[in-house]
């Protein structure tokens, strides 16, 4: 642990900090290193879809080092600058928000908060460059059998587990389908409605005004209200030991194909042929109306000696699991001779899509103690004692003390207030300036 943060639970003299205990316990767990194959296909119309593929990313150093893979789709709008900027900077901004010296399980537990920080920092940095384009992001991190997906916008990621169950790992932030987000944008001062044409008729999807964007979350979009936020929906699952198939696609695919038909049209094909087939079918169904991009990732068990037990078909959402529960199924090879085999199903570890930054950055003890206190929880700059602003400041609970972490720097606090609609956004104030 490089430092202690948060407000509670510091250990007394002579006690071993909980983080160390967890490290000891978890480091004994066997880390599965499954095999993985991927394929990518793209049919471009506007040239605003971008992808990011990086395998063999290094986590940690020395003996405990492991590798992870990143696959991402960025679907830009109003130009491609935001998509390119996010592609080039997002991973680094996420990794900078993860404390060093974590073991693998702590690293996985720290990812959801680091993804939020990295998305917000990337959006803030890009907006500081005063460029007006925006982008969706579907960002997938695969570490062993654990898949973590962070998403803003309407590119989507789905998982088909080996038993044929379908899991949707991303959110859909289209105003047309997300009433909760319509209410959030409206309460922050945005206007949501359809385009008016001559004669008074309303056409097209629901859009947010000013700006006319049909998404409620994105990276970039300086000229749209700041209630169009970059805070991602994050979902983390652990695949069963028999693996599964991921499909990550821009809306060019999902406007033409249902989740089921995308999976069905490429069943049995290797990932590169599968990605090609999905793009081909999408274009065939609707014509080439949009950039159409697809990444297919197959995750296999590491050399499976015996055929997997067919688990019961299970659809959809599971329960929120304790991240630090020691999972005996991880060492299932030791139990194969026994009478009892644990059900081998996809485990849903974490899910949060809230738009409230304070909630997304505030983690339960013991995870909160992995993060440094005197560093801005979003942009990671150092804060002098007494200068940080609690992420809970102005919250309605009233229990906040100024030193309650996580803390934000002044600039990130201003960003937070703008996202929550507590001050006029840049777009609105610019409009007012223009009319004066
Ligand atoms: Zn900051």
UniProtKB/TrEMBL annotation:
Reactions listed under catalytic activity: O-phospho-L-threonyl-[protein] + H2O = L-threonyl-[protein] + phosphate; O-phospho-L-seryl-[protein] + H2O = L-seryl-[protein] + phosphate
Keyword Hydrolase assigned: yes
Gene3D superfamilies on file: PPM-type phosphatase domain (3.60.40.10)
GO MF assignments: metal ion binding; protein serine/threonine phosphatase activity
Domain of life: Eukaryota
SUPFAM superfamilies noted in UniProt: PP2C-like
PROSITE patterns found in the cross-reference section: PPM_2
Region ranges (Disordered): 415-436
Entry keyword set: Hydrolase, Magnesium, Manganese, Metal-binding, Protein phosphatase
EC number, as in UniProt: 3.1.3.16
Cofactor(s), by name: Mn(2+); Mg(2+)
Enzyme class name: hydrolase
Domain PPM-type phosphatase: 49-299
Pfam families registered for this protein in UniProt: PP2C (PF00481)
Classification via PANTHER family: PROTEIN PHOSPHATASE (PTHR47992)
Family indicated by similarity: Belongs to the PP2C family.
Protein name: protein-serine/threonine phosphatase
């Amino acid at each position: 642990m490089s430092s202690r943060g948060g407000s509670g639970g510091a250990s007394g003299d002579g006690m071993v900090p909980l983080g160390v205990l967890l490290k000891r316990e978890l480091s004994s767990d066997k880390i599965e290193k499954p095999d993985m194959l991927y394929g990518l296909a793209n049919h471009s119309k506007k040239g605003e879809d971008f992808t990011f593929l990086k395998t063999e990313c290094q986590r940690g150093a020395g003996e405990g080092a492991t590798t992870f893979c990143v696959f991402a789709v960025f679907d830009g709008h109003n130009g491609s600058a935001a998509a390119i900027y996010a592609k080039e900077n997002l991973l680094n901004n996420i990794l900078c928000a993860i404390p060093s010296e974590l073991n693998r399980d702590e690293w996985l537990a720290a990812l959801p908060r680091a993804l939020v920080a990295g998305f917000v920092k990337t959006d803030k940095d890009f907006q500081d460059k005063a460029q007006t384009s925006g982008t969706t992001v579907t960002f997938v991190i695969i570490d062993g059998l654990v898949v973590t997906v962070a998403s803003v916008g309407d590119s989507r990621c789905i998982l088909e587990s080996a038993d044929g169950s379908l899991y949707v790992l991303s959110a859909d932030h289209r105003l047309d389908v997300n009433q909760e987000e319509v209410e959030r944008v409206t309460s922050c001062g945005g206007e949501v409605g359809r385009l008016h044409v001559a004669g008074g008729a309303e056409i097209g999807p629901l859009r947010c005004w000013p700006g006319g964007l049909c998404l409620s979350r994105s990276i970039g979009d300086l000229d749209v209200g700041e209630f169009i936020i970059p805070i991602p929906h994050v979902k983390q699952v652990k695949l069963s030991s028999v693996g599964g198939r991921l499909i990550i696609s821009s809306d060019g695919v999902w406007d033409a194909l249902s989740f089921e038909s995308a999976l069905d049209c490429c069943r049995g094909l290797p990932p590169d042929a599968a990605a090609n087939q999905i793009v081909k079918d999408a274009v065939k169904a609707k014509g080439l109306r949009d950039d159409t991009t697809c990444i297919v990732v197959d995750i296999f068990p590491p050399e499976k000696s015996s055929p997997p037990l067919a688990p019961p078909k299970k659809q959809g959402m599971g329960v929120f699991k304790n991240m630090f529960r020691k999972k005996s199924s991880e060492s299932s090879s030791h139990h194969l001779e026994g009478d009892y085999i644990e059900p081998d199903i996809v485990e849903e570890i974490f899910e949060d899509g809230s738009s409230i930054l304070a909630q997304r950055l505030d983690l339960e003890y013991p995870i909160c103690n992995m993060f440094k206190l005197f560093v801005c929880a979003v942009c990671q700059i150092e804060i002098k004692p007494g200068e940080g602003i609690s992420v809970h400041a102005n919250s309605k609970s009233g229990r906040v003390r100024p030193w309650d972490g996580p803390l934000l720097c002044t600039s990130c606090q201003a960003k937070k207030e703008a996202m929550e609609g507590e001050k006029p956004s840049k777009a609105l104030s610019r409009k007012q300036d223009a009319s004066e």
